[in-house]
């Protein structure tokens, strides 16, 4: 009597998406070359589970929420995604919203993430172009002299953004937005060389960004 093979093709049913999940994990493992693959896998899949949790709850974060999150995380420029999500959740930004931004930005979640990068991606969710991102960046990441709480365009004009923060933002955006070219980033870096911080009006005067930040 013939017996049916235990693992014939008809008996093997792969869960939907298994190939993509394993492919992505393999790519991250090769990229990171972890000493402890099991521990790396646990961290990676925990982060992936967090990213997929409650994706229906995505909401565009407010400018004030982003600023509050930045203040919470200012002292820790990098950290586990779970910690960044916890800080964002404490100011009203859902884990699902953070997950959506991270997925859209293709952020490597198998290691510590850049706080500024994640917040920049969240900021881009509420902006329709580079000019809007940069104008909003002054309110989210900038320093205001009197800190009156004014979040109007006048408030943006009076805020100052640290040059290293600005250049990092352009770097993060340049990795994802063809509008932010290498020539643009280099032009901004040259124009602001030696400056500690910059206000919006001065930044709009930088030739590389003049057309993006034309002020009314």
Automatic annotation (TrEMBL):
Keywords: Cell projection, Cilium, Flagellum. It comes from the Eukaryota. It is found in: Cell projection, Cilium, Flagellum. SUPFAM superfamilies: Dimerization-anchoring domain of cAMP-dependent PK regulatory subunit. Its main location: other. Belongs to the ropporin family. This is Radial spoke protein 11. It comes from Monoraphidium neglectum. The lineage of its organism: Eukaryota, Viridiplantae, Chlorophyta, core chlorophytes, Chlorophyceae.
């Amino acid at each position: 009597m013939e017996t049916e093979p235990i693992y014939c093709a008809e008996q093997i049913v792969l869960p939907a998406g298994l190939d993509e999940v394993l492919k992505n994990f393999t790519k991250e493992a090769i990229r990171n070359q972890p000493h402890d693959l099991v521990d790396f896998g646990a961290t990676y899949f925990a982060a992936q589970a967090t990213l997929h949790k409650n994706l229906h709850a995505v909401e565009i974060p407010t400018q004030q929420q982003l600023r509050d999150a930045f203040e919470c995380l200012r002292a820790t420029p990098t950290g586990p995604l779970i910690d960044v999500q916890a800080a964002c959740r404490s100011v009203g930004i859902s884990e699902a919203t953070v997950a959506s931004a991270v997925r859209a930005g293709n952020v490597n979640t198998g290691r510590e993430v850049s706080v500024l990068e994640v917040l920049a991606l969240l900021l881009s969710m509420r902006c329709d172009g580079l000019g809007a991102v940069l104008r909003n960046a002054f309110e989210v990441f900038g320093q205001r002299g009197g800190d009156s709480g004014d979040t109007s365009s006048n408030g943006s004009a009076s805020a100052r953004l640290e040059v290293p923060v600005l250049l990092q933002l352009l770097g993060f955006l340049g990795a994802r937005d063809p509008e932010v070219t290498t020539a643009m980033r280099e032009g901004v870096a040259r124009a602001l060389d030696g400056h500690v911080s910059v206000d919006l009006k001065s930044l709009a005067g930088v030739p590389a960004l003049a057309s993006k930040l034309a002020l009314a």
